[in-house]
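hey team, just a heads up i'm posting the complex here instead of the shared drive bc the drive is being weird again. everything in one block, sequence lines first with there labels, then the predicted structure for the whole assembly after. its two chains so it's a bit long, scroll down
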Amino acid sequence: MKKIRLLTPGPTPVPERLSLRMAQPIVHHRSPEFEQVFARCREGLSWLFQTKQDVIQLAASGTGAMEASLVNFLRRGDEAIVVDAGKFGERWGKLAKSYGVNPVTLKVEWGNAVDPGAVAAALKEHPNARAVFVQANESSTGVAHPVEKLARVTKNHPAILVVDAISALGAFDLPFDAWGIDVMVSGSQKALGLPPGLAFLAASEKAWKLNETADLPRFYFDLKRERDNQRKNQTAWTPAISLVEGLDESLQMFREEGLQACFARHERLARGARAGMQALGLELYSKAPSAAMTTVLAPQGTDSEKLVKHLFKQYGIKLVGGQEAAKGKIFRIAHLGYFDDFDMLVVVGAVERGLKDLGAKVQLGAGLAAAQAAMAEAGAPTGPQLRG
Amino acid sequence: MKKIRLLTPGPTPVPERLSLRMAQPIVHHRSPEFEQVFARCREGLSWLFQTKQDVIQLAASGTGAMEASLVNFLRRGDEAIVVDAGKFGERWGKLAKSYGVNPVTLKVEWGNAVDPGAVAAALKEHPNARAVFVQANESSTGVAHPVEKLARVTKNHPAILVVDAISALGAFDLPFDAWGIDVMVSGSQKALGLPPGLAFLAASEKAWKLNETADLPRFYFDLKRERDNQRKNQTAWTPAISLVEGLDESLQMFREEGLQACFARHERLARGARAGMQALGLELYSKAPSAAMTTVLAPQGTDSEKLVKHLFKQYGIKLVGGQEAAKGKIFRIAHLGYFDDFDMLVVVGAVERGLKDLGAKVQLGAGLAAAQAAMAEAGAPTGPQLRG
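-- predicted structure starts here --
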């Protein structure tokens, strides 16, 4: 028998309660029954985004919401500052070019966070830039960019701050209104524990103001049309009904746990994973590790791809390796979503066993003990943990 | 106790087998396990589209695929013939304008099919038109447009024929290669019996040729990028994993039933529904009724919206009324998807009861007897009906 365990940064495991909800008979979307569900989701998403603004739902995966965050606010020929510190930062640049927006790319070495001063300097050099695009958590490196500081930089500049929080929302604090973020996008298959296919987007007053003069073509991702419909608990196009039902249930689970308790849990798991890896003599890859995932350099002489494959084949434990520049060098442990302390023991234990199997020098149990201690020290789970 | 029964043209009921499959633990999309599923879906979709071309999957609802069918093949300033015979035909025109394509709109009275001669004339008058946009089944009216004849018209013209088969694919015959259709789009929540959120698109050689010079901006819906990825059983962006799993199961159910048997079943149900309604003295709304749905004029003095609401409130039977021009005038019975003869008895019986409740003159049982006779005459289900 081999139990399959997914510890990847998206998709993340779907809680049984969500699966059961989504397996209920489908409801027609043009009906008062669905509108009630949709209304609860709207309210729950605003709570999760910590905003008074509308959070718009889109039937698409995260990249669709990234596209929406560009085409609804910019004009052809506009300049935009793009923070490129990994695979997803790079995507902002490609996206901008596809629509005739000129990216000013701030290349940041993989594994590092952007310096807010560099963004401020770029905006000074490009006073006509209309947006700064960044990731809250760059999934290819496990880096958390300093969103709060970046928001302070854009606050007194005409540019809007656009944050890809696809793998960050719900894992750590990103208070949209309090920090002054202008556009934030996320997706269903990360902290929310749903299958992919649903994306979310909130926009500030400053961003909606830009929307009035934005001239990039759009139809499926037209946010103004969606906002007008969604305020009536309807959608312009057919919504991903089963995922919306699951979202309703997922948001309910978040409410039961509490937002701060949820962030504290992610932080505790991150500490456990980091402590476990470091106790095995491994080096963290991210210089600004996020609470959503832990990225680790494989030991000298061990191909991380080989480790990842071995763990799945031998033990059914699914991690992911590195992408592009980090391929073969790193492996990534996700702890965003439906995970608790004991899942971290599983993953640390698996890494110990896997490395040992591949001939690396590790002391079995050292990682486990360190992870256990770090999580216990971070305090017991607070409040009712009803996410089961 | 009130049993809820969905008889709407999308979403359609999800077979239990598909729900169970989609409730299985989620699989990572960048894995050999998922690639196997994806490969089977690719093969099954080509079989269902009756084409040797790639059928591309998109994480979006149908309108997303409609957008893809425009932005990947046309140039800014191009002319395109738009068949506007209802709400979905109208959408083609709006979509075209959003991207700077000039629609030449052929307005067709609601309830009627387009005359292929009118399309030929429009192409003669607009020799630079690069596309003809049409619905296979116009869901707002229940009209089947003459796709085969339209394909003969576009065959010797530079324009491509773009067919919205969202509510038609799998319900009646639309052999993509044999008829010479150029682009055809569909969605998951219709005959395939899945929740919405997955869309499909096939393109002919002629269309791919146009793709080489197409200059409309696109990123999320870039079909060339998707095709290159999907040939390797991957997707450019995160796919709607659970729906793809469900698709694999749905296509398997189609194979077990057989394509011709499936079309025959839809035709038989359509005959039953039409005979039932006519035996109640009701007039069909569609002058070219499709096998996907039956649209019916409510009797004089009866508001169809009122009937639809009453049927759901009193009996849990969900039909839909008319949209825009047909609002209050018609109701629509869907029989595309997971339906059999006995579902038609249920819906005809419900309409009889509902009309009687609202004071219309109907002879209880007359519709049922006629539906029963028409379906029996159309022949018993052929082949193994394993869609359970």
